[in-house]
Design goal:
single chain, five-stranded antiparallel β-sheet, alpha+beta, elongated, two-stranded antiparallel ribbon
Length: 285
């Protein structure tokens, strides 16, 4: 479970659920009895107010839990034909609908209590944000931003990460290597060194005659790179199986080892490999 998988809309949903839980313990009704003795003002947990508890308070809290839990599940996982967030959206709308009709009811000398008013506000906010989050970019943005490229390497590297990692200590392509040799980039063909004549004191050998066949340089291959995802995304098996083998979490660097059209083959910290089909918005190191 990674908190970076949550969106801003999820933050509002969690806040609404907390407010709804608090409201359930406050007075649901307020009585105006004058000089006549009034009964005790009940809260949402009193059996005499059934079905207020399951239709408003519990429905809203369960809806928020389903929406948040969906962020930590692989995409495509469904329950009775619907995903967890779809069940949560439907349940949040039901809770708001029940709360509106409850507050419109009542009777003579009976007024809405603090718990009923806060419950209405919480369920309306919950339902509105749950419905709008999939369609609103501002609400779909990550709740906690991904760290910059200077973050520590997930492969255990310290202040001086290894080749290719997007940090100041990593060896960059083209940087001088051991013995003054230029560092070769992954996937790039090695540059042929100048041929020398052993009898010429180290001087370069003469160039081949014009018209002689020249070896054709191989095409540049894919170069591995580090990347991070903006939101949690599934990693599918390389054999094309629809079942995810892992889930990439925001805020963690992964290594892309192969390109397959628009998709890439990524490797996780524990060495598992899989195909990342959705590469939109990824941050390259």
């Amino acid at each position: 479970m990674n908190i970076r998988s949550l969106t801003r809309g999820d933050g509002v949903v969690i806040g609404a659920a907390v407010l709804l839980f608090i409201a359930s313990f406050l007075n649901f009704y307020s009585y105006d009895c004058g000089s006549i003795g009034c009964p005790s003002e009940p809260n949402g947990w009193k059996s005499g107010l059934f079905p207020v508890l399951p239709s408003i308070f519990l429905a809203g809290i369960i809806a928020a839990a389903l929406i948040v839990a969906a962020r930590f599940q692989p995409e495509g996982r469904k329950l009775v034909g619907l995903s967890l967030d779809q069940w949560g959206i439907a349940l949040s709308v039901f809770a708001a609908w029940s709360s509106v009709w409850t507050i419109l009811g009542g009777g003579e000398r009976v007024d809405p209590g603090v718990g009923q008013i806060l419950g209405l506000i919480a369920t309306l906010a919950l339902a509105s944000v749950a419905v709008l989050t999939p369609r609103t970019p501002a609400l779909k943005a990550p709740l906690v931003g991904a760290p910059g490229p200077q973050a520590p390497s997930p492969y255990g590297a310290g202040p001086n990460p290894g080749y290719g990692y997007p940090g100041p200590g990593g060896m960059q392509p083209g940087a001088p290597g051991p013995y003054g040799q230029p560092q070769q980039q992954y996937g790039q063909p090695a540059q042929p060194q100048a041929q020398q004549d052993p009898n010429a004191g180290g001087a370069p050998a003469p160039a081949p005659q014009q018209g002689a066949a020249q070896p054709e340089a191989p095409a540049a291959d894919f170069a591995p790179f580090w990347f991070a995802v903006p939101v949690a995304r599934p990693l599918y098996a390389e054999d094309g199986s629809p079942t995810p083998v892992a889930e990439l979490a925001p805020g963690t660097w992964y290594l892309a080892v192969e390109q397959r059209g628009q998709a890439i083959v990524a490797q996780t910290q524990d060495g598992r490999r899989g195909v990342l089909q959705d590469t939109t918005g990824i941050q390259r190191g």
